Amino acid sequence: MTAVEDGLAHEVGAEDLSAGSEVGRYRALCGAVIGPAALTVPAGAPCRSCAVEVAPPGPEAAGVDARRSRRAAASWLRALRARTARRDAGATLSGVADDVAA
User: Partners of 46 in the beta sheet?
Assistant: First the structure.
């Protein structure tokens, strides 16, 4: 919701949205109490404080599951590289054999 006060686009939670509809002022996730701009006003730049509040947790917060996922992806990628290297080596050897036979 773009605020009249600062022109920034703030995030407003669902419960704050319903509570603020009675008075026309809303509490954003960053704590600012804002008045909404008209819908015809283009959206403002995102409020950085609100963006921090709605950002998904980083890999360090996810803990073991994130590490396990990265390890599985790395293992799959190593296996793919090995298969590709074997395939390329086989294609090179068969190309050499064709050249020698000709």
Answer: 9
Helix, strand or coil, per DSSP, at residue 35 = coil
Does the global pTM surpass 0.70?
Answer: no
| 40: amino acid identity, one letter | T
C-alpha dihedral, 64 to 69 to 71 to 74, nearest 10°: -160
**The dihedral of CA 32, 34, 39, 41: what is its sign?**
negative
Q: Tokens 């809303």 map to which residue? A: 26
**Share above pLDDT 70 across residues of the chain, in percent, rounded to a whole number:** 78
CB-based contact 8:2 (threshold 8 Å): yes
What tokens were used for 65?
A: 């599951």
- C-alpha–C-alpha distance, residues 100 and 96, integer Å: 6
